[in-house]
């Protein structure tokens, strides 16, 4: 995935991002998250905790700088 594709995905509606993630994760047969003494988490609009995963390592780079976490492949 190139940087323009990654940026385009971040602008998609939530369900379209989900569909994209599922398709690409199946295509690449891997998922990536951010890890540093625990997996990076966020919250939805209702305050429910969410684990953040991406289909490729380069997708994590945009968020890893802000969260002080390192990309980690989830097996």
How would you characterize this protein structure?
With 75 residues, this protein is an alpha+beta fold. The protein has one domain. It is built from three helices and five strands. The strands form two sheets. A three-stranded antiparallel beta sheet has the order 4-1-5. The longest helix is centred in the N-terminal third of the chain and has 15 residues, at 14-28. The protein starts with a helix and ends with a strand.
Provide a compact summary of the structure:
By secondary structure, the protein is α+β, with helices and mostly antiparallel strands. It has helices at residues 3-10, 14-28, 57-67, and strands at 31-35, 41-43, 49-51, 53-54, 70-74. It has one domain (3-74).
How many domain regions? Answer: 1
Helix content: 40-55%
Number of helices: 3
* Major beta sheet summary: 3 strands, antiparallel
Q: For the CA atoms, what is the radius of gyration?
A: 12 Å
Q: What are the salient characteristics of this protein?
A:
alpha+beta, 75 residues, 3-stranded antiparallel beta sheet, 3 helices, two-stranded antiparallel sheet, 45% helix
Annotate the secondary structure layout.
Layout: H1 3-10, H2 14-28, E1 31-35, E2 41-43, E3 49-51, E4 53-54, H3 57-67, E5 70-74
Antiparallel strand pairs: 1-4, 1-5, 2-3
